[in-house]
Structures are given as structure tokens and as C-alpha cells.
Amino acid sequence: MIARFTSVVALVAMVSGPAPGHRAAGGTISGKVTYTGTPPKARPIDMSKEPSCVAQHATPVTTQDAVTGAGNSVDYVVVYISAGDEGAAAATDTVRYEQKGCQYIPHVAVMQVHQPLAVLNDDPTSHNIHPLAKVNAEWNKSQPKGAPPIHTAWDQPEFIAVKCNVHPWMHGYFVVLKTPHSSITDSTGAFKLEGLPAGKYTVTAWHERFGTQSQEVTIAGSETKTANFVLTARPY
Amino acid sequence: MGRLFAVVVTAIALVSVTLFALHTWWLPPDISTHGGRIDSQLNETMIVAGILFVAAQLALGVFVWRFGERGGTRATWPVRIFPGGATPMVVIATVLVGIEILVLTLVGSKVWASVYQSPPPPGALQIDVLAEQFAFYFRYAGADGKFGVIHPEKMSDADQNFFGLDPATDTTARDDIVVATLVVPANQPVALRLHAKDVNHSFYVREARIQQDFVPGMVIPLHFTATTPGRYELVCTQLCGLGHYNMRAYVEVKSPAEFGQWLKAQQPAF
Amino acid sequence: MFSVDHKVIGRQYLDLALVAVFTGMVLSWLMRFHLGWPDTPIPGLGKIAPGGAAGGVMTPEYYLALMTMHGTIMVFFVLTTAPFAGFGNFLLPIQVGAEDMAFPRINMMSFWVTLVAFLVLVAAFFVGDQPPLSGWTAYAPLSAVGKDAGPGQGWGQTLWAISIGIFCIAQLLGSLNFIATTLDLRTRGMSLARMPMATWAWFITAVIALVAFAVLMPACILLILDRVAGTSFFIPGGLVISDQLQPHTGGSPLLWQHLFWFFGHPEVYVAILPGFGIVSQILPVFARKPLLGPKVFIACLAAIAFLSYTVWGHHMFLSGMNPFSATLFSVPTLVITIPAAIVTLLWIGTIYGARLRFTSASLFALGFVSVFVSGGISGFFLAQPSTDIYLHGTYFVVAHFHFVMGVAAMFGIFAGTYFWFPKMFGRMMSETLGKWHFWLTFIGVYCIFMPMHYLGLAGNVRRYSAFTDDYLQPLIPLHRFITIAALVTGAAQLIFLYNLIRSRLRGPQAPDNPWEATTLEWSTSSPPPHDNFGGRRPVVTQGPNEYAVAGPGGRDYIMQAESR
Fold it and tell me: What is the nearest CA distance from C488 to chain A, expressed in angstroms?
């Protein structure tokens, strides 16, 4: 039982970044991200040029740049501490970014500066990974089928769009942050930042199409505070 | 050594020509209205070139066999000059090759002109083709019959706005249909406009006997008529970067009725 | 090392070409292996190129880089340097009876500049993210827009453009020297009509090269400016690469193609015309009879040289240029086959009635005729816009140009090497090894390049790093056959390399005129003294073609500096 629990924690840590040590104590900020306005339609992705990827999807795949749910919730919003936790311990575990069925899994990957990043190709075809970095050094490299993972890391905080030129519909993000405290909203728009020592924080929500919002939250001890964000959506 | 050379040259010539003649590896069947003339031009060239090839290799082989020294002893037969000297060579080459050139040019120019120097037939279906690293996208005008204006600054793969449309202000763009498979009706001419988004690409459909480069900064017209329903490959033949080998799309030729149904079932781009 | 002696410079050019040709060959081995077995790791490659071939399986961009480097190295640093600059430098002054080139210092400079160009190109393997991958034709805007367009478009492509620009300078210097030497330094009695065929070929090649490289050099400068100085000669406005709108406007991609092919097509003749000359000089020696129609031959060379400037558009039938001009460019392209056919018939006619001797040199000269015919014939298909619609961009083109300018020119180089090695180094090469080398190479090149015609007819597109689609996969067995043939034929070149090295060190002493030839280089010692003729300039009384005649001492030939 304990072993199983540990592995679940490790898995969560792998996906969301912060090391297990951080959630032992401290305060929590949780909340929900919603939108006002009209979001763009989720559009079907036409993968017909790559039959090996078409075969991996039973139902048509749609775009992930503006995924919304019931109650105007917004998926794939990165909520993180943008000020107030300077000096927090850095995460050292490896962030995995997979190419599967000609999609990026996860669509948005959050990592810390210098945190190890592994890019994997699970497809029976060749991809090229092209992070369109502006602050960091841009790179562009093919990963043939069966090729070993590409191990890398980023030097500067940046929101980096990732694309595959071989499959132009493939689109994702590397979100490189200074903080170990971050969370990605789920399909209900919910997020949770845990293990925060007492202090005054700026919490920022970032979405690739709906923009950025910040608010200040003060944590006194082992309490849970709520911070909700309402982003503005436009149809085009 | 001379006999060996003659045998090897002859064998090479005969094996090569046989594999051409047997069509062991050959063009896929033509599915276009103009392709038959390209094929017959190719066949005619193949016959003439084959004859010239075999004749030249055999002449080389025969002369080397006949006039080569044997067994390490110095030849003592009298040296002879080719009858007539260089003149027959000049005459043969000029007349034979000259006539061939004349015929090929006269016939070939017509074939070329029918595709590349004539406007598309009236009533041709207009389709926009966009080539980018490393995919093709196709645009049909949609219900209003009008194409939205292309704005390079709006082009975004991330937004699936491959053609750079501006649906916020350009109402003609909203119903444009953008797909990744080129679907065309059989026996109806299609007129393509080729747009390159980034670098040079090329439009090559083997079965339709059609090829044309995309050039950035130019919109290049191209028209053809497919005859046989089926699924064919469109591939890029102009080196465009790392994914060049995987830059393709499929061409689906459908009966006019099926094509109409397909077009109706398509969602507008926005 | 820094010698101004044209003989030393000629040998330096040939040594450079030897290094380059084996480099290019190894690159082609790697490519061919990958095409036959795309998922099989190549042992050791992962260590040599961890970025390009992690685990030994090369990435598509690394394949294209190998292809680009193979083409660039072979065309510029082998097919231009060896038959033209290498043999031409060593032999042209001797054949006209001169002590050296007209401008020995410029001549020395042209070699060292060529070497710098080669080093700059090879540096692209080690500098930046990746070697260039735009092909030897470096079509803009792919080659011009910089790193947004993908790997290899950073430092690699810039170094490529710099290297070729430098190379052009070297060739311009070399060509001027060839022309001046031929026109001004001929010895007494060496009228133009008495010049050996090889000298004629090098002279006419120099004229072609002078105009061709004079166009490529500014084109490279413009390309470099587009890449590093933000100009837009070859880049139009409104380009979006990887979702990045490019800050360029107003350029023309077709301008690069026109400039490149205005150089590029004459360059084909720069590679092959020296081979014409070498073969036309070697065949009569071993046929023991004069070349059929030497004046016709020279006229054909001149006609080819002129026509070579009128045909460049045949590379661009489908490029988007005005389709009317395709017909216009097609006609001279087909017409140029007339002088080429005449020359071929002259060679075959020369063999008629001969007492043909079989040496490594004569076998390669005969092989040259065979492969040149094979390569030339396929030109008929590509010269016509109508058939080019289908065959453009396929392996048919690869087969065509490899036969006609690659293999044929290499056969000219091999023939020249076996023929002149005794004169260059004073030692004979092994004929046994030479003949093995010939047979394996001759059969091998047909096994490699003839099937590429079939691939092209089947619609196999070139410059693909793998054949992943359903249509091309059935052709992979034929690719494997070609790969095996390429590996074997490549290995046969090691026989040549061994023969070169061994003969240079301990080959038997060469007499002054081992082949009983007539031209002036055979009148001097092997190797020739520093001033070529030991202080006395030869006086020419004969043409180069005096075979099957009653010569002095019962010989069947009269040397050019002998009196009858």
C-alpha cells in the first residue's frame, strides 16, 4: 500500500513538477478558471497525410488550443506563483513530453528552469520537435521512429510554442517557470497549488489564447485559500 | 580482353533494354485526360533512344572485339581508316539526331502546350493549394463561391489557420472549406492555384502525369482533368527541408455525385 | 609545398580531389545504406555523429546533409578540380611546350584558395547545429532565410555559400591562367592546329569556366547577404516559416535558379569536356591510329561550349518560369546532342580498323564511351518539357547526371590517371590491379545507375531520406540491390587507392614514353624536370595524331617534336 502510494505521488510529481517534499506542509491555493465571451470552435484535425496516426484515433481529434467545459471552465490553463516564493527548492525529476498519434501528450508541459526534459516519440513515424523559443535558444530536430529520447532543459523562463513541421497540426507548449509551484487546470477548470509557506504571493493564470491574469494571495499558515480567474475569450 | 569487353558491353546493353521493354518497373496507369499523350511521347522517345543506345553500345562492342589485340601479342594487321573518314559520322549524327529532335519538338511542344500554355477550360472547379513545410492544404470556396483573402500575418498552424484567413473582418472567408486531402470530381476539369507559404515545393501526382513547382511569392496556375475514381498520392518533389520525404497528401477522385455529397458534408473553416 | 611549379600544383589538385572523392564516396555509402535499410543502425555512426544519428540511425536532416555534402564535394572538389584543374595544370604547359603557366604565382594561389574553400565546406560538419541540407543546388529561399527553415540553415548553409564563393575565385584565377598559357606560351611550331586534343579541351573548358564561375560568385555573395545582412535578393515578401512571418520583401526565388543554372549547366561541361579531351588523346595512342576527324572534334567542343550557355532553362521547365520559354530552352538542349553524338561516333569510328591495345588506361577510355552514351541518351527524355513533366525530380534525373557527368567524368579521370601516372611520378602503376579495378567499376556503375532509370520511371522521387509511403515501399528491394552494388563498387575503389599508393612508392621505374605516344610530355623525362624540358624548348614539327605512319626507327608513330 505504501509502495503504491509512493508511486502515485511520484507520477503526480512527474506530471506537475513540484517534488514530493513540498506538499508535506504549508498552505494551499486552489480555484477555478472560467471564461467570458465566445471561445473559438474546437475544430477537427485532418491527419490524412499520416495514415499511421489516423489509425491510432477511433474518433476524430480536435484542436486543443481552446478546450472549454461545462460552466465555461477552461482546460490547459497554467496557474503558478509568479512572485513571492523566490528561493524555493528546484525540481530535479524529469518532465516527459510524448508524441503519440501525432499529438503532444501533455498538450502543455510545465517545467522549471534547468529541469530535465525528455521528449519521446511513440509513433511509427518520424517527427521533428521545433520549440519556437525566443528568449531561450531555438532548436529543431527530427526524432525518427524508435529513436532514443531527446534529453534537454531550458535556461530561461519562457512560454514556448512547440510544433512539428512534418505534421503541421501538432501544436503544444513548453511552459518554463522559475517557480516549483504550478498547476494545470483539468477539464473542470480546477487547479491547486500546495505546500506554500506563509507569505504573500502573486498567482498568475496563463492560457495560450485567452491571455494572462494575476492576483495577490496571502497565506498565513496551513490554510487553503481560493483564487478564481475569469479570462476573456474571442471567437477568432 | 577485347572479347570480354565486347561481351560485357553487349550484355549490359541487352539486359538494360530488356528490363525497359518488359516494363518491369514502369509508370502507373494514367488517370488524366492529357496523360495519354505524355505517355505516347515517352514511348516514342523510349523506342528511338533504345535503338540509339543499343546501336552505339553494340558498335563499340563489335569494333573492340574485331580490332582488339589478343593474347598479349602485338597486332600486325593493317590499320584502316573508317570508310569516308569523319564525314559519315557528322552526316549520320546530324541527320538522324536532327530529324528526331524535329519530331520530338513538334509533337512534344503540343503536349506541353496543352497543359501549360493553355487556360483551364471554362467551368473548371477552382481549388487553392497551399504548400508548407511539410504538408499540403486545399481550399474550396464554400457556399458563397468566393475565396477569403489570404493574409500572411494571419497564417498559423497552431490555430489551424493554414491559409491566413481573417474571419473577423472578411465574411467571404468564414465558409471557405480547408482540408488536407485533395478531392476532385472525375471527368471535370480542376483549376488549381498553387501558393507556397515558406520555401519551394512541388506538386506531383504520378498517375495524373502532372508536376509543377510551388514558388514563394508567386501564385502559379495549374489545371488537369482526372478520369478514374480512386485514391492517389500527391508528393513533393522539390527539396524543402528535413520532412521533404514525408511531404504528401492524398488525391481522391470521386464520381461527380459522390463529390457533390462530399463537398456538402464539409464543415466551413470557421 | 608552396611551389609555383605547375606540376606540383597539378599533383596537389589531384591529391585534394583524391581526399574529396573518398570523402564523397563514404557519404554516398552511408546514404545508400540508409535508403536500403532505413531502420538498421550503422555501426559507429552514432558515435561519430551523436546529433545526426543517435543510436546509429540517421535523422532525415542528417541524410539530406550527407546528400548535400556528397553533391557539393563531388561536383566542385572532384569533377572540377581533378579533370580540369589537376590534369590541366600538370599537362597543359608541357603539352604546349611551355616552362610553366603564364602566371605561376596566381596558379599557386588558385590551388590554395581551392583548399581553403574545401576546408570551409568540411567545417560545416563541425560548426553550428548541422551541416547544410539544401542540396548542391541550394535553392532559395530555403537556403536564404536562415534557421527558421529548419536544421542546417544556420552556420552550415552560410559556410556552404562562403565555400562556393571562395571556390569560384580559385576557378576564375585558374581559368585565366589556362587561357593565357594556351594563347601566349606555345612553343615554336605549336600552332593551334597542332595542339593535342586534351589541351584543346582544357582550353575550351577554361573559357566555359571563366564565364560560368563569374556568374556563380556574385550569386553566392547575394546569397550570403540575404543570410547575414538582411537583404532580400532571393526572398519574396509574406513568407511564413514555422509560423514566423519573415522580415523580407521583394526578392525572387527564381532569380537564384536562373543564376545558379546559368552556372550549373556549363559546369556540367566543365566536368565532362576534359574527359572528352583525355579520351580523345588516349584512344589513338592505344588504337595505334589517328583520331577520326580531329578538326570536327574541336568544332564540336566549341559548339558545345557555346550551346552550354543557352540551355540552363531545361532545369527549370516546371519551376514556374514562363511556360513558353520551356519550349525555347528545349530546342538548344536537344541540339547540343548533335555535337555530342558526333564526338561519340568519332571515338567509335577511331576504334574501327585499329590495333587496339588493352591497358587500364585504354579500358577506362573505352568504358568512358560506353557510360557517356548511356548517360547522354537519357538526356532525350529530360530535354523535352512534355516528358520532363513526369520524370522531373525522380531518380531518372539522378541516373542521368550520375552517368553523364559523374561516372563518365570519373572514367576520364581514371583513364588519365593510369595514362599519365608514369609521367607524373616516374613509376608505372600495376596493370593487373588496374584491370581488376576497371572490370569491377565498369560492371558496378551499371548495376548502380541503370536501375535508377527504372526507379524514375516508376515515379520514385529523389532526395527522399526514406520511402515510407505505400506507393514507394515496393521499390525498396531495387534500392537494396543498388545499395549492395554501390558498396561493392565503392570497395573496388580501394584497389585503385592501394595501386596509387603502392605504385608511387615502389612501382617499376617508368621510361620516358611507355605508351609510345606522340605529345610533348612524352618527349621529356619521367617525371619532367622543373622547367619541363631541361633548358631546351622543344620545336614542334608534327600534329599530335601521327600514328600508323612510318616513323623513325621503324616506329609506327612520330612524336610532335621529331622531324619526319
Answer: 28
In A, what residues contact B, Cβ < 8 A? 40-41, 43-50, 63, 65, 125-126, 128, 140, 142, 161, 163, 165-169, 171, 208, 235-236
Query: B14 — contact with chain C (CB < 8 Å)?
Result: no
CA distance B148 to C45: 50
Query: Between C408-425 and C431-457, two packed helices, what is the crossing angle to 10 degrees?
Result: 160
Residues 164-183 of B with CB under 8 A from A: 166-168, 179-181
R_g of chain A computed on alpha carbons: 18
Segment holding B44, helix H or strand E: helix B35-67
User: What parts of chain A have a pLDDT lower than 70?
Assistant: 1-24
pLDDT interval class at C476 (50, 70, 90): very high
The residue ranges of DSSP E strands in B40-186, in sequence order, are 125-132, 135-140, 177-179, 182-185
Asked if residues C170 and C519 have their Cβ atoms less than 8 Å apart, the reply is: no
Backbone angles phi, psi at B96, to 5 degrees: -60, -55
Do B128 and B147 form a contact (C-beta atoms < 8 A)? yes
Q: Hey, is A55 helix, strand or coil?
A: coil
What is the pLDDT averaged over residues C493-504? Answer: 97
* Pairwise CA distance, residues B125 & B128, whole Å: 10
Cα separations in angstroms, C484 against C28, C30, C33, C487, C564: 12, 12, 8, 5, 54
- Asked if C560 and C198 count as a contact pair (C-beta separation under 8 A), the reply is no
Residue of chain C whose alpha carbon sits nearest to that of A129: C150
Where are the alpha helices (H) located in C253-378, listed in sequence order?
Answer: 253-287, 294-307, 323-335, 337-351, 360-377
pLDDT digits (tens, 9 = 90+) for C329-341: 999 999 999 999 9
In chain C, where are the structural domains located?
A: 6-234+247-554
What is the number of alpha carbons within 13 Å of residue C352 lying toward its C-beta? 16
Q: Which residues neighbour C256 within 8 Å (Cβ) at sequence distance 6 or greater?
A: C138, C139, C140, C143, C144, C219, C223, C233, C234
CB contact under 8 A, A140 and C147: yes
Hey, what CATH class is B125-265 in?
Answer: mainly beta
How many domains are there within chain A?
1
Let me know: does B37 contact B114? Beta carbons within 8 Å.
yes
CATH of the domain at A43: 2.60.40.420
Decide if domain C6-234+247-554 falls under CATH 1.20.210.10: yes
Residues of C in contact with B26 (CB under 8 A): 457-458
C154 and C56 Cβ atoms separated by less than 8 Å:
no
Its ipTM equals: 0.96
CA C334, CA C477: separation in Å to the nearest integer?
34
Interface probe with B: pick from A54, A139, A165, A169, most Cβ of B within 10 Å: A165
What are the C-alpha distances in Å from B266 to residues A43, A46, A59, B150, C372? 12, 12, 17, 20, 55
- Calculate how close chain A gets to B67, using CA atoms only, in Å: 56
Residue B46 one-letter amino acid:
M
Q: What is the pLDDT of residue C469?
A: 82
The three-point CA angle C142-C146-C148 to 5° equals: 90
Residues of B with CB below 8 A from C299's CB?
Answer: none
In eight-state DSSP terms, residue B244 is G
The segments of chain B whose pLDDT lies below 50 read: none
- C253-287 vs C408-425: helix axis angle to the nearest 10? 50
Q: DSSP secondary-structure letter at A68?
A: B
- Minimal-distance CA residue of chain A relative to C150: A140
Residues A84 and C548: their CA atoms lie apart, in Å, by 100
Which pLDDT tens digit goes with each residue over C7-32? 999 999 999 999 999 999 999 999 99
